[in-house]
Amino acid sequence: MDATDVGAHWEGNAETWTIYSRAGYDKYRDALNTPAFLDMLPPVAGLKGLDLGCGEGTNTREVARRGAEMTGLDIAPTFIRYARETEAADPLGIDYVLGDGQVIDFPDDSFDFVTAFMSMMDMADQREVLKGIYRVLKPGGFLQFSILHPCFVPPTRKNIRDETGEAVAVQIADYFDEADRIDRWLFSEIPAEERAGLTPFSVPRFHRTLTTWVSMIIEAGLVIEAFGEPMASEEVALAEPVVADTRVAPIFLHVRAGKP
Ligand SMILES: C[S@@+](CC[C@H](N)C(=O)[O-])C[C@H]1O[C@@H](n2cnc3c(N)ncnc32)[C@H](O)[C@@H]1O
Q1: Distance, CA 14 to ligand 1 centroid (Å)?
Q2: Ligand 1 neighbour 79 (Cβ under 6 A)
Q3: What pLDDT shows up at residue 1?
Q4: Which H, E and C letters describe the chain, residue by residue?
Q5: If you measure from the C-alpha of residue 74 to the centroid of ligand 1, how many angstroms do you get, rounded to a whole number?
Q6: Which residues of the chain register pLDDT less than 50?
Q7: What is the pLDDT of residues 46-74, one digit of tens each?
Q8: Is the C-beta atom of 10 inside 6 A of ligand 1?
Q9: Quick one: three-class SS letters along 3-39?
Q10: Based on CB atoms within 10 Å of each CB, which residue in 33, 43, 95, 168 is the most buried?
Q11: How far is the CA of 162 from the centre of ligand 1 (A)?
């Protein structure tokens, strides 16, 4: 699958994704994943950052609010349009550009850091993405990214629940299958009556094993500094029961890697 195909899938998702994520239905992102990512992020005030696969920009804005001078890049024009509209209404100094993360079009050593929130498993050629990130990072800069956890969310995953509906185990399969795939789903908390009228997201996914991810990071010249596997606290799981399954096994993997 090439970038044009991937971009077309995301362009088809962008309108519904933006409306429902901004309405608070991306519960995993808002209740768990982004807060954990930001907790792991080193101080960025005064630094120049690139957010790769920025979508409609919610997470880019969070990083900008920490004082970074941000550029957001995404392959889907509708996401970039929404992000720019929000920037125009409430400026944070973010520059949003349309582009392909596999061919990052910035000069060498342009950024102090790069973030990629839940976007790199959606890019087909992660080797090229990582090489591009290395190139545009200044020496001493870092990349921090989140992805679906390669070990616990491989192509096939099923929550095992007890008689009360509580997630108690996870069944996984196809861990070593790195074939391109298209996942179809909607944010699970969207009410049934609204779901009926929506076309499910069509998400190209390029699963890689943990070994492949670590090899690609090392081959790019980056040095792994930190891993994170966010788990919902008891309080968060009570407030947002949909994320309680992260107390059984992680759904997300966070990685920070530096350019020496
Ligand atoms: C799961 S969404 C995450 C969006 C946003 N980072 C967030 O956390 O809300 C994945 C994003 O990656 C973008 N994307 C996928 N492939 C891309 C590519 N090759 N280059 C740039 N962006 C890409 C999609 O358009 C989409 O916005």
Answers
A1: 10
A2: yes
A3: 86
A4: CCHHHHHHHHHHHHHHHHHHHHCCCCHHHHHHHHHHHHHHCCCCCCCEEEEECCCCCHHHHHHHHCCCEEEEEECCHHHHHHHHHHHHHCCCCCEEEECCCCCCCCCCCCEEEEEEECCHHHCCCHHHHHHHHHHHEEEEEEEEEEEECCCCCCCEEEEEECCCCCEEEEEEECCCCCCCEEEEECCCCCCHHHHCCCCCEEEEECCCCHHHHHHHHHHHCCEEEEEECCCCCHHHHHHCHHHHHHHCCCCEEEEEEECC
A5: 6
A6: none
A7: 999 999 999 999 999 999 999 999 999 99
A8: yes
A9: HHHHHHHHHHHHHHHHHHHHCCCCHHHHHHHHHHHHH
A10: 33
A11: 34
Decide: 62 in ligand 1 pocket, CB within 6 A. Answer: no
Task: Map tokens 């790199």 to a residue.
Answer: 120
Residue 135 near residue 73 (C-beta atoms within 8 A) = no
Give the CATH number, domain containing residue 199.
3.40.50.150
Cβ 74 under 6 angstroms from ligand 1: yes
Q: How many domains does the chain have?
A: 1
Domain that holds residue 9: 3-258
The closest of 8, 18, 20, 10 to 187, measured between CA atoms, is 20
Ligand 1 pocket check for 148: Cβ under 6 Å? no
Q: Give the per-residue pLDDT at 78.
A: 98
pLDDT of residue 258: 98
pTM exceeding 0.90: yes
Q: Ligand 1, closest atom to CA 129?
A: 19
The CA distance from 195 to 205, in Å, is 22
Q: Is the CB of 75 under 6 A from ligand 1?
A: yes
Ligand 1 centroid, distance to 168 Cα (angstroms): 31
